[in-house]
Structure to design on (326 residues):
């Protein structure tokens, strides 16, 4: 039995509370990092994190890449889409294939 | 000359030959694994990209709705409306094994079956825009779960493909040529030894004949 958490600035994520996801508002880097660390130890299956927040703690996110759970997924925040999520998908293609053969032309 | 020093013995030769057979077999298997992983990965990553674009568009429009909703209400009223969520989501996580990569599968359950439970407020003091915003967010939730599943699987599979590819290359370009070179070196060395023994014996025979009968094989 797992839970789903959403991390990011309050304005971007408060809507998810109504759906029954757990929201963890975090503003600065320290807060985000601590929140992630706390969530990783508890029973969370998916952690959605806003792209803006993810950019702050990029190095911490890499540790989650190899783990099966939780899945840390970037979503766009209220301030707009930075393209970091799509960039992440491209990065996995690069890792697997050697170069981005699928989405190279599409931006 | 072999890259590393090997003992030119029959035992070593047998060992190396076995090693070569194992390496070639392993290489073939790993190559098959890599190809199959890659095939599945490419399908998955295409889906991943599609779902991601859909989710991002969905969240963008939901956020727009929320901003509009927020504009029409006081901050306090909005916070109050959001304060106590009625609905709760729990996640069942299973595992699926794709070519020895464990990828998670997610299934979510809402605490109550009533889909109107996402509105955690009375309708009297909130704007109708808020209802629309919450609804639009609820609509993309299944896609978000699917995205999590896809994206995690892609990450795990990419890591596995990278590892497998390295192994295939190491076997193909290092282990197998090295073993073959060692085998060649030992075979040569053993042949050389055999020839030198043969010559020595012939020489000894000549010397013994010479001694017994004053007979020289050369002339």
């Amino acid at each position: 039995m797992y839970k789903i958490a959403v991390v990011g600035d309050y304005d971007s994520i408060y809507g998810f509370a109504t759906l029954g996801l757990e929201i963890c508002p975090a503003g600065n880097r320290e807060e985000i990092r601590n929140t992630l660390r706390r969530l990783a130890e508890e029973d969370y299956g998916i952690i959605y994190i806003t792209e803006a927040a993810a950019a702050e703690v990029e190095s911490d996110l890499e540790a989650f890449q190899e783990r099966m759970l939780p899945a840390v997924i970037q979503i766009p925040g209220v301030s707009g889409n930075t393209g970091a999520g799509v960039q992440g998908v491209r990065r996995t293609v690069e890792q697997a294939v050697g170069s981005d053969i699928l989405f190279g032309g599409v931006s | 000359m072999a890259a590393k020093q090997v003992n030119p013995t029959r035992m070593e030769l047998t060992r190396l030959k076995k090693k070569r057979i194992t390496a070639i077999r392993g290489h073939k298997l790993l190559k098959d694994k890599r190809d199959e992983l890659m095939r599945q990965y490419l399908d998955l990553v295409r889906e991943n990209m599609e779902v991601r674009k859909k989710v991002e568009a969905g969240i963008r429009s939901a956020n727009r709705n929320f901003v509009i909703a927020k504009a029409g209400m006081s901050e306090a009223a909005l916070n109050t409306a959001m304060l106590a969520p009625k609905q709760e989501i729990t996640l069942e996580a299973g595992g699926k094994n794709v070519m020895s990569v464990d990828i998670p599968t997610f299934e979510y359950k809402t605490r109550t079956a009533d889909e109107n439970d996402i509105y955690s407020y009375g309708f009297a003091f909130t704007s109708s825009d808020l209802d629309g915003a919450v609804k639009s967010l609820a609509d993309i939730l299944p896609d978000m779960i699917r995205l999590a599943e896809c994206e995690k699987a892609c990450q795990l599979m990419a890591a596995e493909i990278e590892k497998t590819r390295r192994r295939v290359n190491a076997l193909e370009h290092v282990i197998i040529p090295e073993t073959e070179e060692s085998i060649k070196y030992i075979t040569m060395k053993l042949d050389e030894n055999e020839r030198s023994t043969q010559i020595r014996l012939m020489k000894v025979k000549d010397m013994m004949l010479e001694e017994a009968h004053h007979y020289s094989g050369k002339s």
In short: Chain B has a mean pLDDT of 86.
